[in-house]
């Protein structure tokens, strides 16, 4: 269902290699559940790779860290007009995140999500490369 592709100007991207129907679960966002403070500490100790965005907020206090452990879905790039959405739920007290299709997706389409960051925030310095009609300019 998924493949990785190098897209010029963007880098590694997650693309569909078959039809994905609207509302279909694309994949679970897998990784190690860490507290927000643990995650920030890891990023600082690891050279501050926050520009890679491999951490997915599981809750207000937890992050699903896919930097070292995670599946292909961690390569879903940001878009200001994403074709996928992140849903969160709990199973036996464990936070889970999944990526679901917002519309029908065709083979070769890049799968994108909205990273959920405020583009006006002072820490928002990463240039957006989505090229959508309503691009905000920064992630």
Brief sketch in words of this structure:
The protein has 139 residues and is mostly beta strands. The chain is 7% helix and 35% strand. The protein has one helix and ten strands.
How would the blueprint of this fold be written?
Blueprint: E1 2-7, E2 11-16, E3 25-29, E4 32-35, H1 36-45, E5 55-57, E6 62-65, E7 77-78, E8 84-91, E9 94-101, E10 112-113
Parallel strand pairs: 7-10
Antiparallel strand pairs: 1-2, 3-9, 4-6, 5-6, 8-9
Structure, explained:
The protein is mainly β. It has a single domain, classed as Beta Complex (Beta-clip-like), CATH 2.170.270.10. The protein contains 1 helix and 10 strands, in the order ββββαββββββ. A 3-stranded antiparallel sheet has the order 3-9-8, with no helix packed on it. Strand 1 (2-7) and strand 2 (11-16) form a beta hairpin. The longest helix is centred in the N-terminal third of the chain and has 10 residues, at 36-45. The two termini are 27 Å apart. The model has no long low-confidence stretch (mean pLDDT 82).
